[in-house]
Amino acid sequence: MSRTSIQPTFRQAERSDARGIASIVFGILCEGGPPSGIDPMSRDGVLEWFDRVEDNGAFFVAEVNHIAAGFAAIEPDARDAGVGLLRVYVLKEFRQRGIGRELVQVAVEFARQNGFRAVRGFIPEENEEALSFFSAVAPLVQVQAGQFDFEL
Prior knowledge:
Layout: E1 9-12, H1 18-30, H2 43-53, E2 58-64, E3 67-76, E4 83-90, H3 99-113, E5 118-121, H4 128-145, E6 149-151
Parallel strand pairs: 4-5, 5-6
Antiparallel strand pairs: 1-2, 2-3, 3-4
C-alpha cells in the first residue's frame, strides 16, 4: 500500500470494534520488536478492557480501507488522580503516516473535554520507538491543548 493511497478514518471505538482491536494487539505482538507493554488478548479480553475503562476513558480506532490499522486507549491513571494514561498502537505497515499522531490528538481532546488535567504517554521499558514517538508528538499536543499537560 503506497503512502499516498491511504486515507485513514478515525472515530471513537465501540464494543463492536473489539475484534479489530484484538487483531491489532495480535499484529503488534507478532512483530517481535521492542516490548509493547500490552498482553495478548482476545475479543473477550478487549471487551473486559472496555468494561474497566467504562465511562472514565475511551478507545479510538483508525481504519484504512475498513481495516483496523491502529488504536488509542485513554484511561485514568490509578496512581495519579486527574491524569489519563494514553496508549497508542499502530500496526507496522501503517506507521510513519500520521495515524499515531492523529490518534493522540483525538484522545487528548477527549481527555481535555472530560476533565483530565494531564495525559501521560505509556512508554514500555526499553521501547525506544515509543519514546521517540511520544517525544515527537508532545509539542503538537501542547499547542493543541494549551495549558493541558502532556507528560512522558
